Amino acid sequence: MIVKMNKKASVWINVLVLLVVATCLVALFSFVNNSGKLKEDISGAFIIDEVLIKGNSLDFEIENLVENVLVETYEKFVDSQSYMNSPIENPRGSGNWEFGELHKTLNEDFKKEFDKNFKLEFSKLGFEEDFKKIVSEGKFESSLNGNKFNFKISGKEFKSSLKDVEVSYIPEIELVLDLNRIGLISFEEIYNCKEIVKKGEDCALNNFDVSKSGEVVELASKKEFLIGKDFKNIEFGFLIK
Fewer Cβ within 10 Å of end Cβ, the chain: N or C? Predict the structure, then answer.
């Protein structure tokens, strides 16, 4: 049996076939085009993650360095009686000094000593020269307030690129270190302890052991710190005034 098809039906079938082919081509072009955009998006996200990881790594390194320098500065301060206002040496030569009041410029002096030590220790590490210059020029902030030590620095730029995608990131590192969390005590706590012992009462501190022998009060940290190349307790004493 022969089926005859008129010309109109043949034309519509051809049109339908052409429409199907055109739709497939459009879909294929859209897929290829969107695949390229997807690759660009993935590449851009990868580069952003890369510089963010570098920034977070720097944050971690700086926090460790700041904490180490803070402890060393603290140890030097108590060892040299720099926290005392006009200390008087024990005439009997016990090595302890009479402790009356806290130094009037205690926080400012501590900042200066920390800044000096931080520049020195930072220069020994393998950071890039542009970042070392920022530190050597003192382009960072530090301050001591009670049991809180604040530190802030920025200026180190991280760059990464892939084809036409380029990302630049300058992290701002801002730290607030708690002396009690580290294992230290504030200088105000040392003064308050001295006043308590002066009244004939026992002084209890979270991070330091306190002992009294005659007029001499001795404090020793419960935690050992890495100072220089050795782990040791921070120990110091004073005469009650």
Answer: N
Tell me the C-alpha to C-alpha distance, in Å, between residue 25 and each of 33, 35, 38, 119, 151.
12, 15, 20, 65, 60
CB < 8 Å & 24+ apart, contacts of 87-91: 87/238, 88/241, 90/239
CA distances from 51 to 48, 165, 201, 202 (A): 5, 13, 56, 53
Indicate the pTM of the whole model.
Answer: 0.76
Contact 194, 169 (CB under 8 A): no
The least confident of 35-49, 107-121, 153-167, 220-234 is 35-49
- Collapse the DSSP code of 237 into the 3-class scheme (helix H, G, I; strand E, B; otherwise coil) and give the result: strand
Q: How long is the chain?
A: 241
Distances, alpha carbon 130 to alpha carbons 10, 104, 139, 162, in Å:
76, 37, 12, 23
